[in-house]
Amino acid sequence: MTQPATEAMPRDLTVALAGNPNSGKTSLFNELTGSRQHVGNWPGVTVERKEGYRRTASGRARVIDLPGTYSLTASSPDERVARDFIISGESDVVIAVVDASNLERNLYLVVQLIELGTPLVVALNMSDVAEDRGFVINVDKLSELLDVPVIPTCAHVGEGVEPLWEAALAQAREARAPRPIRYGRQIDEAIETVQASLLQLPGAATAERRLVWLAMSLLVGEEPAWPGLAADDPALARVRSTARAAARHLEEVTGDTAEAVITGGRYGAIQGVYREAVDEPREAGPTPSDRIDRVLLHRVWALPILLATVAAMFELTYVVGEYPSGWIGEGVAALGGCVSAWMPDGPLRSLLVDGVIGGVGGVLVFVPQIFILFAIIALLEDSGYMARAAFVMDRVMHRMRLHGKAFIPMVMGFGCNVPAIMATRTLESPRDRLVTILVAPLMTCSARLPVYALIAGALFGPHAGLAIFSMYVLGVVLAALVARILRHHVLRGEEEPFVMELPPYHRPTAKGIAIHTWERGKLFLQKAGTVILAGSVIMWCLSALPWGVEVAGPQSYAGQLGKALEPAVRPLGLEWQEAVALVSGFVAKEIVVSTMGVLYGVGAEAGDAELGRAIASSHLTPLSGYALMAFVLVYSPCIAAIAAMRRETGSWKWAIIAVAYLTALAWVVAFVIFQGGRLLGLG
Ligand code: GDP
Ligand code: MG
Fold it and tell me: What is the per-residue pLDDT for 2?
């Protein structure tokens, strides 16, 4: 027999990590590959497939971190990704990472992995936690019952990782599928019947390992892909009718649907294994997590606690953040002053001081706040509270026709809309997910804050704080309204019941929080260094060109652009300067501030106070200023967020729809504020 050439070529071994969310997959992945990774604590952080490499005696192995899932029934995109990857046969061995302190529940996924017939190793992770709680797990027994090597590990400190790796490589070399599980006579017979029929198919022998899974899929009425055969192949029709008959028989004798029977069979098998291999703590009292939940998920107090947490989060962010912000502001002003003093007056100095230092500096001031906010969000996630927040908010979110999980991206949106849009991946229903993506930009992100701070500071005096706060509220209210309308009229469909696992609480590690905070915060720094720098320079050039005109005057390119757009913003009480500023804010909303600085002729060395005075003495009134703030809140998200929308929805269509509807909505809201205010005699 001749081997195909490719078979003989050495290739990297591929090891896939599968497991429930928060079972420690990412920690293990880090230990195995040494590459830094996201360590999170609410379901679905590891949505993308992440790869790393590890040396082996004969070369290297590829390690893949699959999305965290509770099962492989493929009802969510995460589950589908994980399952399809394993079915594809790309991996030589799967490491099932299970939480030993929650073994019974985690075994569901293990059972399904055994059904898929992939070479398998179980990492009995969190074995320290299980031991602390008083579980005694007979590892050998467990391994014998499952017919899979079981290796206890503590992934967060790297314990057991070496033996695990050795076991995985051995399984991959042997390419041995675990022995099929027994589910009870009736189910087993049904599976065997379908299997026998499957074996008649051409090429069945090569799929032998997967026959159990194929048979079970057919029994529950799914249509697994059969490589090499067309869907209308008569051979397949025979298999299908055998499967239908077997399923009907199963339903007749049990009086339940085949799916329910099979799921029940899995649970039964798991219970059997669990009872034999595990001694539960004698005093099976409430776990520490249960005790914490009694307070934090209290029927009455849960919501007030959550609201207080969110309020404290903002308070901490802005009160504490103000100090380092002030220092950075002073530093930027001093730098501007220095450069002004050193350089001769001229366009280059103006470009540096007003364009570069002023533009980027005006944004850097907000870096401390953003990092503090992200650190708090990371703390909430890593401790396990964020998942509870989603649970508590479920009722409220359902009034917007959304799932409780949509609350998490909304909160993240207060930091930055980009991670918020990415965080929608945990939503199982594609409609919920799309609606959340479409309304997430209505959360006031930190980039909008400098704009509010500037305008409200200039026009509202002591009430600036209240004016800013009202923007946050306006955003949330609009998001709720839009979500309801979309869910009701455009993206209708069943509401998802709340099926979200609440992971046990963890004491967050400083390292984990630091990594989280840095991963999200660095996006902002990169933005300041690239998009915002470029945007500021472009706006400065537009306002200084053509040469010879009054800088930022109506004859400059910026002025001409603004004049052309002025008719559109006039009904909102705004003039050409604001039109230009809003156009520039399309790049990144922070740029609105530096554009206004340039257009109102105030340089960086003057500082924000000077610009505030210029705005206070301009045509802007509190009413039109408020309309402007609302416009900034609602209109098109920045380029980075638009790109994230395109990526996450997989097409430009929804990104463009979002830009269009948000900009139109912004105009309407600002119009209502300005004209309504005038009718009421406010302006
Ligand atoms: P994933 O969602 O499966 O990728 O889980 P992570 O790797 O992000 O881990 C979730 C949390 O559990 C993190 O805070 C880890 O530090 C922690 N963790 C991971 N493995 C262990 C372990 O063996 N014991 C303990 N006590 N904590 C662990
Ligand atoms: Mg993970």
Answer: 40
The domains of the chain are located at 13-174, 185-259+269-279, 305-492+513-679
Of 36, 33, 38, 89, nearest to 62 by C-alpha is: 33
Candidates 594, 591, 597; CA nearest to 640 is 591
Q: Cα dist. 265→144, 188, 248 in Å?
A: 20, 9, 16
Among 193-207, 388-402, 604-618, the least confident range: 604-618
Rounded to an integer, the average pLDDT of 365-369 is 77
Nearest CA to 670 out of 504, 421, 506, 455 is that of 455
Strand partners, 95: 17, 121
pLDDT tens readout for residues 221-231: 888 777 677 77
Q: Would you say the CB of residue 21 lies under 6 angstroms from ligand 1?
A: yes
Q: Does domain 13-174 have CATH number 3.40.50.300?
A: yes
Neighbours of ion ligand 2 (CB under 5 A): 26, 46
Q: What number of other Cβ atoms are within 10 A of residue 299's Cβ?
A: 6
CA-to-CA distance for 52 and 63, rounded, in angstroms?
5
Average pLDDT over residues 116-144: 92
Ligand 1, atom nearest to 20 Cα:
3
The pTM of the full predicted model, rounded to 2 decimals, is: 0.59
List, for residues 552-568, the tens digit of each pLDDT value: 677 788 788 888 888 99
Ligand 1 atom showing the smallest separation from residue 125 Cα: 23
Please give the residue that has the higher pLDDT: either 139 or 390.
Answer: 139
**Is the CB–ligand 1 distance for residue 126 below 6 Å?**
yes
How would you classify the pairing of strands 59-65 and 50-56? Answer: antiparallel
Contact 517, 371 (CB under 8 A): yes
Question: Percent of the chain scored above 90 by pLDDT?
Answer: 23
* Ligand 1 pocket member 80 (CB < 6 A): no
CA of 100 to the centre of ligand 1 (A): 12
Of 9-18, 523-532, 587-596, the least confident: 523-532
